[in-house]
Amino acid sequence: MAAIFARRCNVYVSTFCIFAACTFIGFVKCELQLTGISPVGKSGGKSSIDDGVVSITADNLVSLRFYGAGFSRDTRISFTTTAGKFKTKCEADRTKPVTFKENGLREYKGEAEVSLPATSDGQVYYVCLQFSNGSDWMHQGGASDTLLQIKATIESSLPLWLKIVFILILMCLSGLFSGLNLGLMALDPTELKIVMNCGNTSEQGYAKSIEPLRRKGNYLLCTLLLGNVLVNTSFTILLDGIIGSGVAAVLGSTAGIVIFGEIIPQSLCSRHGLAVGARTIWITKFFMLVTFPVSYPISRVLDWILGAEIGTVYDRRQLQEMLKVTAEFNDLEGDEMTIISGVLNYKSKTVEEVMTKLEDCYLLDVLSILDFRTIAHIMQSGHSRIPVYDGERHNIVGLLLVKDLAFIDTDDCTPLRTVIKFYNHRVQRVFDDVHLDAMLEEFKKGHSHLAVVQRVNNEGDGDPFYEAIGIVTLEDILEEIIQSEIVDETDIYLDNKSGKVIPGRKGLMKNLSLFSEEQDKPKISPQLQLAILQYLATAVDAFSEDIISFNVLKRLINQPHVVQEIKLQDEDNINHKYLYKKDAAGEFFTLIIQGRVEVTIGQEELTFEEGPFTCFGARALVPSLSFSSTNVKALGQYIPDYSVRVVTDLMFLKIPKGMYKQAVRATLMEREQGADGIDGALPGMGLMNFPALARINHVNGSGIQSDHVYLETTC
């Protein structure tokens, strides 16, 4: 009503000005002219003011009041949708003319009942007036003046309450489509399958009901988008029919769609899209059927262009990072995360990264003797598989399993080479760039759980050759997978990453020492003992039958600490790797039983190697009668002019000068008193109990001046 009142005021002012001007200049009758239109108050709601323009219900008689000048009972009114200037002819596209009602007709205003067809969006009617029947129709203008325009709109057939109900329903559907678009389409096929297999009972039920529709991804997407656009458009039209098409309609529709159709449903479905989608699945299927003629062809085109939908796929690094990012929200423990990380990473690592370097490995020389000490050392190492080398440590020639020692008698002193040849375990070799997954497959085949890591050495001028650089075991790969050291009941183990020796179970070495106290000395077989006795008695003059009897010589060899061993890998013996040093006193005799030594002689430092049954230091026992020799001092101290260095594990016979003199004295007593007397006088051959020794005046020697020449002629 306020808009109608304001419009009438404007019309009254314009009409009054025109009428006053006509009267002032003396005209009796003003020229026919329209100044404004307004609805009559008793129009029954069929006319209104919409954005300054008179709006009437189409195809209904509506009373309108016209203002202007020169109106009469002969004046006729017609309407056209064609815009024109004032006083131009108006002949085309006019509606059926009407006349003013005689009741209340004045020269400056009049009422008429008008019925107009509906206009399209943005189209209005303009007024054409005819002064009398037969005169020209004159256009009244109004292209830029809303006071002279009329809109004819179609009256809605729905009542107001039904429109409100439809608006609420459309608002809910708009929110549903918007939320499902985010909730369902965000669930890619891969994630949906995971939920179907690993979710709880309710989630599995939701996923199973949604999965058939989600498989048709583009069809579902087109349906949701078309449905969303359809309900939003219908909502806007219905809202416009209630509150009009002004600013209020724009603000109302925008607020309704954004808040209730986008923000609230999307925030809800982003967290509970699976449940919402499953509970409203019948609505989605209904709209898929309704929009099938449009959405299905579009979806087929999209399938052809974009291809099949695969879903989100993570590689190893992405999967590992996803686990780290979601660590505080999932139920994985710390060690489980560590193991998963190790499983995802181990394929990218090579055996060189996890192997134990060869210099840190426990190896055995193929020349070793399997006596009590060697086997005890093997047991104390805690390893079940031990590589065996020949000469150089990088020359791996065999593999010893601890179970191979089950039937080995330590008293037999079995050579390790014999055991290696008998069992002939395959030595598996791999290159340093082999990945851990391939190495694990090799171990799973059952050939071995230990492999020698090698590489091609092409340094220098010679031909390239394979060089062993480390050892890799199945345990190393498992430790890399679980990202932790596997500690068993062994005494010690070597961390192949830090290189540190870490203690394990205590007490095994102590327990073994209880048994090794009496048997720690090296053992030689009876056959080898007989060979040593015969060699000393026949090849070395100092031990001939004339000087030492065979019975005393046998007891001499069986004395403690006469047969000795040197293990190069034993750090306790590293200072004993020289048997003799040049110009250093050495008051003992040595016979090599097993192993090899390096001899350096004379000023020229000539070097050569010697093996079993080579003797040294015979002059220390029986010096020449002429004390002019350069290597025998006045007091009888023996100074060798050569050096003897141990190059392999060594077993040798070591007889000190004092013990030798006691053996000579025991021989003299034996010959004087008889064998029974000497046996009773010397329990365990306690030769050190003799208070005095007879001087040896005559030695059946060869008169050699140089000790190393003595080696060649006498030994």
TrEMBL record:
PROSITE patterns: CBS (PS51371), CNNM (PS51846), PROKAR_LIPOPROTEIN (PS51257). The chain crosses the membrane at residues 9-28, 160-187, 218-239, 245-264, 276-296. Its main location: membrane. Residues 156-336 form the CNNM transmembrane domain. It is found in: Cell membrane. The keyword tRNA processing does not apply. GO terms for cellular component: plasma membrane. GO terms for molecular function: transmembrane transporter activity. GO terms for biological process: magnesium ion homeostasis; monoatomic ion transport. Residues 401-489 form the CBS domain. It is a multi-pass membrane protein. The keyword Membrane applies. InterPro entries: ACDP, CBS_dom, CBS_dom_sf, cNMP-bd_dom_sf, CNNM, Ion_transp-like_CBS. It holds the Pfam family CNNM. Keywords: CBS domain, Cell membrane, Ion transport, Membrane, Repeat, Transmembrane, Transmembrane helix, Transport. Belongs to the ACDP family. This is Metal transporter cnnm2.
